[in-house]
């Protein structure tokens, strides 16, 4: 939104001066890739084409894209069981991710991770950790290694609001705080830990307020505004890279789907859903791009059509990928 002292034209020019048009279009396309991937995967699971289960992130695209677009090539992320969006935002291809969900040996984790454990170390993403809060102490440990090696790298650690109730949250954040470790703790607050609303399990109005108890900076951000997330993460990453971290970012967002594939979301009040769906991150950002003159509506429609075509082509490929063999049981195993 424009600053109160800015006209709409001044605000638009300010954004265009800060963010080149190709960068803005890239953010939009990456969010659309995540949305179309998740929507396509939902139907593939419903028809029984894929093994396992899924935890999806429709509606949370701006958190993943905004954070990962602010990281540098050598930076890492840790993720959760809801990690498809994080993976795509961090640079994993639609094909490698989809092959993994089909259980193929050509997938990003050779068919051994599945939906809940996607990742690629070459892309800077530790395979997802399904234990709630499990990635938080891991991220602190990684950041400690970077500091001891004097490497100017940062870890962005994704977790949900439910993880804040885990002991691992306190332990990991406190460790990072007392040693000034380069971690950006990214809480995707979608208001629900499984089916329990966050205000039923904590007195604080904002999760970011908890940062003060560890002596670090906390910030609450509109998690459905990709540029707001990007800018907040840029600032936090810069602080971490210069020894002023860690930082706790609370990104307010909302998932359009259930906790897992069999969850109909009956616990979400309809008026609440309606309010959040009107703040859809892709629609909002698409409207901004049109307003700025970066792209016409037809161009945005074409981006979506191209993404849908790529996904369908990847599905055709995925159905013919090789599965792991019995011999693969003893590979990639450490004792």
Q: What attributes characterize this protein structure?
A:
335 residues, alpha/beta, 5-stranded parallel beta sheet, two-stranded antiparallel ribbon, 11 helices, globular
Brief description of this entry?
By secondary structure, the chain is an alpha/beta fold. It is built from 11 helices and 7 strands. It has helices at residues 8-18, 21-46, 61-68, 84-89, 94-101, 135-148, 167-178, 226-241, 270-277, 281-292, 297-318; strands at 76-78, 155-160, 183-189, 192-193, 196-197, 217-222, 247-252.
Evaluate the radius of gyration: 20 Å
Percentage of residues in helical conformation: 40-55%
CATH architecture descriptor: 3-Layer(aba) Sandwich
Mean pLDDT: 94
- In what range is the share of β-strand residues? 5-15%
Spatial strand sequence of the major β-sheet: 1-2-3-7-6
Give the terminus-to-terminus CA distance: 54 Å
Unreliable stretches covering 5 or more consecutive residues: 4-8
The CATH superfamily name is Thiamin diphosphate (ThDP)-binding fold, Pyr/PP domains
- Number of structural domains: 1
CATH topology: Rossmann fold
What is the ordering of alpha helices and beta strands? HHHEHHHEHEEEEHEHHH
DSSP helical segment count: 11
Class, according to the CATH hierarchy? Alpha Beta
Number of strands: 7
Envelope shape: globular
Helix/sheet category: alpha/beta
Query: Main sheet?
Result: 5 strands, parallel
Can you give a write-up of this model?
- This protein is of the alpha/beta class.
- The protein has a single domain, classed as Rossmann fold, CATH 3.40.50.
- The chain is 43% helix and 10% strand.
- The protein has eleven helices and seven strands.
- It has helices spanning 8-18, 21-46, 61-68, 84-89, 94-101, 135-148, 167-178, 226-241, 270-277, 281-292, 297-318, and strands at residues 76-78, 155-160, 183-189, 192-193, 196-197, 217-222, 247-252.
- The strands form two sheets. The chain has a five-stranded parallel beta sheet with strand order 1-2-3-7-6, sandwiched between helices. A two-stranded antiparallel ribbon has the order 4-5.
- α7 (167-178) links the parallel β2 and β3.
- α2 runs antiparallel to α10 (281-292).
- It is globular and about 50 Å long.
- The N and C termini lie far apart (54 Å).
- Mean pLDDT is 94; it is low at 4-8.
- One of its GO terms (biological process) is pyruvate decarboxylation to acetyl-CoA.
- Its EC number is 1.1.1.-.
- One of its GO terms (molecular function) is pyruvate dehydrogenase (acetyl-transferring) activity.
